[in-house]
Design a protein that fits this description.
The chain is largely without helices or strands and about 190 residues long. The protein has a single domain (about 40-193), classed as 3 Solenoid (Pectate Lyase C-like). Helix content is about 10%, strand content about 0%. The protein is built from two helices and two strands. It has helices at about 5-10, 160-165; strands spanning about 150, 155. Strand 1 (about 150) and strand 2 (about 155) form a beta hairpin.
């Protein structure tokens, strides 16, 4: 099925809104995996910049090298999704769920990631400069080589406790130089758990 055919099917079932690709009626309840009407998304390498998908269900989606920058996806579910190499730059993702998702080398610069759940996600080499990570859960997340700060800016809302709950290869620690703990103001120390 082509992407156009899939979108037409979703629109006809009212799972996607009309023009503008507003994904409003995707199921986000815990039983979605058993939902026979859940159509796995495969948008590899496509441009969905500016997508309006708040609360959308992207669980198990294949979004490899997909441009979702400047999107509004607050509360969306990306559990087990593959977003490797893609862009979520400056997207609104507050409260989004990324459990076990692959976000390796994803551009998250300037993204609103407040209260997002990255439990056990792969964030290796992710670019997080300017992202707001206030309240984000990084427990078990791989942050090897992730860039939290450079000359483009620093991530905000990050705490040492968040970093300590994550993991990183000793040979490839996250880049946190210049980032202050949001609670204590002390410089963050990379190391990962």
């Amino acid at each position: 099925m082509t992407t156009v055919e899939r979108v037409q099917e979703l629109v006809s079932r009212r799972w996607l809104g009309p023009v503008g690709m507003k994904i409003a009626k995707f199921r986000t309840d815990p039983e979605r995996a058993a939902n026979p009407h859940h159509i796995p998304i495969d948008w590899r390498g496509q441009n969905w910049s500016g997508i309006d998908a708040a609360g959308g269900n992207f669980a198990r989606a294949t979004l490899w090298k997909t441009d979702l920058s400047h999107g509004r996806m607050n509360g969306a579910d990306f559990t087990d999704a593959d977003l490797a190499g893609g862009s979520l730059r400056k997207s609104k993702l507050a409260g989004a769920i990324f459990r076990n998702a692959v976000l390796a080398a994803v551009d998250l610069r300037g993204a609103d990631l407040r209260d997002a759940d990255f439990s056990n996600a792969d964030l290796a080499q992710a670019r997080l400069q300017g992202a707001d990570l206030s309240g984000a859960i990084l427990d078990g997340a791989d942050i090897s080589g992730a860039v939290f700060a450079d000359d483009e800016g620093c991530a905000s809302g990050v705490t040492q406790a968040q970093l300590d709950g994550a993991r990183a290869d000793a040979d490839e620690p996250p880049v946190v130089a210049g980032v202050a703990d949001a609670q204590t103001g002390a410089a963050l120390v990379s190391g990962g758990g």
